Amino acid sequence: MLSEDFDDTYEHLENDTIRSYNGLANFMENPDIHSIITVFAEKMVQNLICTDGTTDEGKQVIEVTLETFDVFVSSPASCRLICRCELIKQLLQNHVVSHHVQ
Description:
By secondary structure, the chain is mostly helical. It is built from 5 helices and no strands.
């Protein structure tokens, strides 16, 4: 019973968070938070793939990108959002397949 109450409360809080994120997205002239998350994920991946990690500037870009990603995925709600992004799903799927994880 207590577990069900907790799950209901958590789901309610997460739904409120998503509504707040969608409100912010609308304020920024985007249809929903997923459109912003998709751009965010694409830019993060571009930073990691296209940046020359041998230069001081490149190392700084990569470090900031990874720190930003770490902060973002530390929240359960935002972690769920980024996991719904098609680019991230594809990266995870490719990683699992390349390591034969089942």
